[in-house]
Design brief:
Blueprint (H helix, E strand, L loop, with lengths): L1 H4 L8 H29 L6 H28 L2 H25 L4 H29 L5 H30 L1 H20 L16 H13 L2 H33 L2 H24 L5 H7 L6 H7 L4 H29 L5 H13 L2 H15 L1 H19 L3 H5 L5 H9 L1
Subcellular location: Cell membrane
Protein name: MFS transporter
Organism: Nonomuraea composti
Length: about 425
């Protein structure tokens, strides 16, 4: 029963509690941002969907450009310090965006520069987060630890989606972005309090960055299940970025009722992620990657419903299904990577994972605005759903995806003892 119900005793561990608190607060800051940034930019004089596409693309491109370097840094330096720096840089970017919206000084190059700063911070933080979890959580409790971190993050997404939309309506996008910056700063302080044993830290070696990247690539490319799913997600994320970042908010503004309607969509998705993480606390599939990829098929549902002009409550229900499936996939994926990849290479492999998964995201953001003009917003959302389904079916053809098996609970416990 221990392996299936999860060991909530992790919550009494000081290091895990600090990591959980920091991650939860950081995600709360992130959850304020989509509604605040989308409608803050769309409400600027002369702004349109292409303006929003430019700002969001400016955030994504630096994240992709610096992701591999972020993986090398996180494998060389103490990961909690890398995360702390990332949170503080993220806070700076959102403080700058909020200040510009509040003062009315919003030249597009300045908005792009502030958005790019947050993209660099994300590139530094994500690989460190993946790598630090096995340093804090025992091997046989990894799925429980990932699920609890997901539970805190998803609760924050629910709160952030609701509070963010309300704050935009009552006070404007500028104040909501300032609040995001304050939350990132608070997360950085909590991460600074996280102390790892000297033996847990990754110490730099007299090696070049290119040598480290080659070693990480060998670990990444030697596992078919990783690179196939990453290739799948490069297309899937492109579609999600276009739909979530531009097309969904645009349709909400045109016909669903504006920011509160879109906040309802995001809240439905976030509630689904909470249900998904509760499921993942108990779920122990023998083929975790196969199940995770299968769960990507229903993530097309909300875009189909948006494209067919379904009632708002039906669209929110579709967003709930999206959240459940995506979160179960996320816990299974993170846990499998942390079990299968050597600890000294985990952040670099994670950086290749994130880079590959996100590399077409800016294309989705960049094309979403023009596509809405060329084909129509609803038609473009249906196109996003088609891309998700086709890329997922292609990934299921891989023997590595279908065949990778999880270790038995007893084997994981013995490995942890060693």
């Amino acid at each position: 029963m221990h392996g299936y119900l999860g060991d909530l005793g992790l919550l009494r561990d000081r290091r895990f509690a600090l990591l959980l608190s920091a991650r939860t607060i950081s995600v709360l800051g992130s959850a304020f941002a989509p509604v605040a940034l989308a409608f803050g930019v769309l409400n600027l004089p002369g702004a349109d969907a292409s303006t929003l596409s430019a700002v969001l693309t400016a955030e994504s491109l630096p994240m992709i450009a610096f992701m591999l370097v972020g993986g090398v840094i996180a494998d060389r330096l103490p990961r909690h310090r890398v995360m702390m720096a990332g949170e503080f840089v993220m806070a700076s970017g959102f403080f700058a965006l909020g200040a510009m919206l509040l003062t009315g000084w919003t030249p597009l190059p300045a908005l792009i520069a502030a958005a790019a700063l947050s993209g660099v911070a994300t590139a530094v933080t994500f690989p460190a987060l993946t790598g630090i979890i096995p340093e804090v959580v025992p091997l046989d409790r990894l799925q429980t630890g990932n699920a609890l971190l997901g539970l805190g993050a998803n609760a924050s997404r629910v709160a952030g989606a609701v509070l963010g939309g309300g704050m935009v309506v009552l006070f404007g996008g500028g104040w909501a972005l300032v609040m995001s910056g304050a939350l990132f700063a608070a997360a950085g302080v909590l991460v600074a309090l996280l102390r790892l044993e000297p033996g847990d830290r990754r110490r730099g070696e007299a090696r070049s960055v290119l040598a480290d990247l080659r070693d990480g690539w060998r670990e990444f490319s030697s596992r078919q299940w990783i690179w196939v799913v990453v290739a799948q997600f490069s297309l899937l994320v492109m579609a999600i970025q276009a739909a979530h970042g531009v097309l969904g908010p645009l349709l909400a503004k045109e016909s669903l009722g504006g920011p509160l309607a879109w906040s309802g969509f995001l809240a439905g998705e976030a509630v689904g992620t909470i249900a998904g993480v509760l499921i993942s606390l108990r779920l122990r599939p023998s083929r975790p990657i196969l199940l995770g990829v299968l769960l990507c098929l229903p993530t097309a549902l909300p875009y189909v419903l948006l494209g067919l002009d379904a009632p708002l409550w039906v669209i929110v229900a579709g967003a709930f299904v999206f959240g459940v499936c995506f979160d179960v996939f996320g816990v299974l994926w993170q846990t499998t990577m942390q079990r299968e990849i050597p600890a000294e290479s985990l952040s670099r492999v994670s950086s290749y994972d994130i880079l590959g998964s996100m590399m077409f995201g800016p294309i989705g953001l960049l094309l979403a605005g023009p596509a809405a003009g060329w084909f129509g917003t609803e038609e473009s959302l249906l196109g996003c759903a088609v891309i998700i389904v086709i890329s997922t079916l292609a990934a299921l053809l891989s023997p590595g995806v279908r065949g990778l098996r999880a270790p038995r609970p007893q084997a994981a416990a013995h490995a942890d003892l060693r």
